[in-house]
Design goal:
Helix content is 35%, strand content 29%. Among the domains are: 42 residues, Arc Repressor Mutant, subunit A (Orthogonal Bundle); 170 residues, Alpha-Beta Plaits (2-Layer Sandwich), CATH 3.30.70.3460. β8 and β9 form a beta hairpin. With 318 residues, the chain is of the alpha+beta class. The protein contains ten helices and ten strands.
């Protein structure tokens, strides 16, 4: 990767729906060169997916993070099984206490429980430990992989559970296709939803205003950016510090994601470094700012083999 590749990646991390013409103008390169570079980044497996971040709560779904340790003999079978489950979103292989981390989704706690049970029952003789905890809020800061921080990054204050927005069949088709590829054009979307291109664009803008669509970005293989990413779980004896901690982490240049969980006294965050020996310095700085923090788990991301994009179950069309 050269400087232009990195600039293209950064722009796509900020907004992966930016047209090639606009990217070329911004980067002072030809349209043909930018288009070729993007195709090459995909072919080389640096860009894994063009992501549309969707607020699934507003579609009537809730999510849970599941961490599992499983006997090595079942690794390949387990991964293949997960790939076929339409309710599983992000999946990563981990090195640490857990072998795998993933997100699963359902319409309510009962459905979530059934879906977790489907995984656990299939491999119950081989699972040596697990954790199941409900998502509260996830934030992703892909731009930090490239050394960039969005001005004024802040975390939204907690509040009441948002209303469930009722969307129609054509909206679901649009969301389903954009979840597969955020760069899909309005004309192609219109054909799939059997509406006009202006109508498709109007529906997208409406879902952006409602907060159903929150961001467009890219999901990348950070190992090909020469980075190591760690998952860190911390608890804090002072519950009132939680909001300040999350705000602090969102502003930290080395923190790549933050996950908060319902009813659990810990926060998970990602640390991306170009040298494993730098992890200690990052954690020490956070500990100095929050001496009441206690690190309870650290895991290394070995490979993320399923995107954070929404699973198929949320787009079921009656």
């Amino acid at each position: 990767m050269d400087a232009l590749d990195r600039k293209i990646l950064l722009e796509l991390m900020k907004n992966s729906r930016t047209p090639v013409t606009a990217l070329a103008k911004r980067l002072r390169a030809s349209r043909e060169v930018v288009n070729y570079r993007i195709s090459r980044l995909v072919k080389e497996g640096i860009i894994l997916n063009f992501v549309t971040e969707i607020d699934l709560e507003k579609l009537g779904f809730i999510g849970a993070a599941v961490f599992i340790s499983i006997k090595s003999a079942k690794n390949e079978e387990f991964k293949a099984f997960l790939k076929e489950r339409g309710f599983v979103s992000w999946v990563a292989e981990l090195s640490g206490i857990w072998n795998y981390g993933m997100s699963i989704y359902g319409r309510d706690n009962t459905e979530l429980d059934k879906r977790f049970s489907a995984i656990h029952s299939r491999f119950k003789e081989h699972i040596t430990g697990h954790r199941f905890t409900l998502h509260k809020k996830n934030q992703y800061f892909y731009e930090k992989y490239m050394g960039y921080m969005e001005p004024g990054i802040s975390t939204a204050k907690g509040g009441n559970k948002p209303d469930k927005f009722i969307i129609g069949r054509k909206d679901k088709i649009i969301l389903r296709e954009m979840a597969k590829n955020s760069r899909i054009g309005a004309v192609e979307l219109a054909a799939k939803a059997e509406i006009s291109a202006p109508a498709a664009s109007q529906r997208i803008r409406k879902m952006e205003r409602l907060g159903i669509i929150s961001k467009y970005s890219v999901f990348v293989d950070i190992s090909k950016l020469s980075l190591y990413q760690y998952s860190v779980f911390v608890s804090n004896k002072k519950a009132e510090e939680s909001e300040r901690l999350v705000s602090y982490l969102s502003q930290h240049p080395g923190v790549s994601f933050i996950a908060e969980y319902i009813g659990d006294p810990f926060v998970e965050f990602g640390v991306a470094v170009d040298d494993p020996y730098k992890l200690r310095a990052v954690l020490q700085k956070i500990e100095d700012a929050f001496p009441n923090n206690k690190i309870i788990e650290i895991s290394l991301f070995q490979k993320e083999f399923a995107s954070i994009g929404p699973p198929e179950c949320v787009f079921s069309i009656a």
